[in-house]
Give the backbone structure.
Amino acid sequence: MLDSDFMELSAFKRHRRLRSSRAIRGLVREAELTPRHLVYPIFVEAGLSGRQPIGSMPGQDRLGIDALAAEARDLGSLAVPAVLLFGLPAAKDDRGSGAYARDGIVQTAIRAMKDANPELLVVGDVCLCEYTSHGHCGMLRPDGSVDNDASLPLLAETAVSLAEAGCDIIAPSDMMDGRVSAIRQSLDAAGFPETPILSYAAKFASAFYGPFREAADSAPQFGDRRGYQMDPANGRMALDEVMTDIAEGADMVMVKPALPYLDVLANVRASVDVPVAAYNVSGEYSMLMAAVQNGWLDEQRAIDETLTSIRRAGADIVITYHAKQWAARQ
Ligand code: PBG
């Protein structure tokens, strides 16, 4: 062997040196996932007693108010710190009045969960789509288009009603312009200057919300949400949305969905210093679970890899339907 050949051989980098045992892999692991980072979404249905499985989301249930105390305590024992609540009201109307009713389904649910486990953080989703008869996220004009500015007072009213019920974090998901500012001003005026806002800043018009719309009974009755949710093709525009929400007072920002938008998540992470959340949405969950049910994926490994990838891309907070199941194995 010539001297020069040997030099070349010893100079190549042996990446495998750092992969040879579980211990050394742990030592050099970059992205960490613990239950501390997770938020678990829950669907609460008015008039329901106990739990009702959701057909489109294997392993997830709608819960009645009477099931929430036990759920809040279970999450505490699993060290899952937070829930995100969605409501199915008893009745819907064109103004979505169930969203801001003082005795609305989510307002009632917040009290039940905080009573049972005061340390559990309750995040309230602020949107009208589960409460409007037409299923859109804001008020409609006579021609059927969504009236941005007329929706703002209703969204702000919803946020205040959630805060009054004990909600810890307000999370607007409606994608109306100016809603973070409207909500911040209303929270401050109502005596909640310390309640943080986690804005669904970059929320895309996604096919992956399909199973959620069955779970929350929130599908639009006509048209779609492309007039207010983002075009999946637009990564730079996502940053513009994020910057606007931070300027309006968002304490934390979200990218949603997660997996088809990890590039957006990484860009947002690199561009802002506020905490960043990612929502591993219903379609991402159900796709994985369907493959698991068919025996095509190993459930635990697939969930670990999915949630770790979201953390690696830059999420501080991961909102996921896998939270409870994943935390139970730690
Ligand atoms: C309300 C809302 C939706 C989701 C969260 N908040 C539905 C939608 O925008 O159509 C989707 C969550 C999921 O798919 O898990 N606007």
